[in-house]
């Protein structure tokens, strides 16, 4: 016969077991909800890519992530080029080939879709139910080249053009060939890729489809650095030569310029793009600020270090130089701003880089705003023709809605 003490112990054990189960169930439920909220999307390798010579720097298969559309958006498509800089010599490309920037072997097999890629109507009101595709970046040249490097010990594949075509060929029978509406987008190096492939994308789709393109932080300027050297131009010239990009630059652009390689820069090629285009950029883009305007080679004594970390630490002279960078971007977009009837523009004064993929900058209660309009609202108004969307922010430091990158 069990004692009162033994019965209490059994009861306590059962209670603890039930509490533990409830606790683990709660944790699992929270994790499951978080996973759903984060919208994790699995990677798809392109199986026929190798036969087309469409491989990453290391020879691995290219990849994308597809989150299927639903409801009214089931036949609409949004393709987003991933960003991630460039490699413009053999050494940097060899290093890149052993990372997620040059090989799908090192990439996360699940990607979080947020911002413009979100499937949540309250977070992405205009594109949430479209087929949304993230194209992984592994060629190191904004999907623009087609060549290779090899010697007795090393092989590097510069096959961005082929990767782009292989992914499109893989997506067409999955419904892209029946698209009603489509948007080709990208961030940073991926934003630059949209300039190269915008019209080609349009030609791929049904003539009845509404096709437009969006570049986020991809309007890289042909700008001199603070020591008056052409750091950006030299960097991209080496990239063009290494990866065989020259023959793929817009022929109308290259034939019109004394220096054809300049057509790698959007300010020269934009005028020749026929597809409606939207340019989203910060006029103080932090990547260009840190690498093109004030690269380490132009600031050997670290005079700009504090200014790069925190804009409020910039001296009056440094602010003057940054305002000069802003002025150049505005000058280079003057024609587009004034004469493009189908183009859209959103230039804010945030120290930022890539604002469409992050939920907090794309569409959130405290998102950056210009004329009280979020980036998501501006892009949506432009795409669907609800409103003319060409907005330019006032100069720093007037905008108190900015999410500045401090690094």
TrEMBL record:
Name used for this protein in its record: Pectin acetylesterase
Enzyme class: hydrolase
Keywords: Cell wall, Cell wall biogenesis/degradation, Hydrolase, Secreted, Signal
EC number: 3.1.1.-
Main location group: secreted
Location within or outside the cell: Secreted, Cell wall
Keyword Transmembrane helix annotated: no
Domain of life (superkingdom): Eukaryota
Function summary: Hydrolyzes acetyl esters in homogalacturonan regions of pectin. In type I primary cell wall, galacturonic acid residues of pectin can be acetylated at the O-2 and O-3 positions. Decreasing the degree of acetylation of pectin gels in vitro alters their physical properties.
Family per record: Belongs to the pectinacetylesterase family.
Keyword Disulfide bond assigned: no
Signal peptide bounds: 1-29
GO MF annotation terms: hydrolase activity
GO terms under biological process: cell wall organization
